[in-house]
Amino acid sequence: MRLIASATLLALAAMAACPASAQDVTAGERSWNKCRACHQLGEGAKNLVGPQLNGLFGRHTGSVEGYSYSTANKNANITWDEAVFADYIKDPRAKIPGTKMVFAGIKNEKEIADLTAFLKQFDKDGKKM
């Protein structure tokens, strides 16, 4: 009986040490498949229908060289961080009215966190950090 109680306490302690909403980069890579028709990522990434997304976090809207942004995106004056991206990816046209991005959005918070973790791996040159 004591052994079972000890094992239960150890299991509970292990679960408490790992947050329930931990980001899953592998799941984020699967979510990236929703984005890759319009965006590229990684070394050699190019602008397609949408801009390449290397080094997204910390950069300003409308700032990727060589990409033709909508006026709305150029004038949005947003710096991408996790919270802004999460809000944006849920409904891009609500966050930046007039954006060219035609995407229904990702509503699931866990999926957004996983996608964010995946995107954050790539620096501005497309190298995995």
TrEMBL record:
InterPro entries: Cyt_c-like_dom, Cyt_c-like_dom_sf, Cyt_c_1A/1B
Entry-linked Pfam families: Cytochrom_C
Name this protein carries in UniProt: C-type cytochrome
Region forming the signal peptide: 1-22
Coiled coil (UniProt feature): none
Ranges for domain Cytochrome c: 23-123
Transmembrane helix listed as a keyword: no
UniProt keyword annotations, A-Z: Electron transport, Heme, Iron, Metal-binding, Signal, Transport
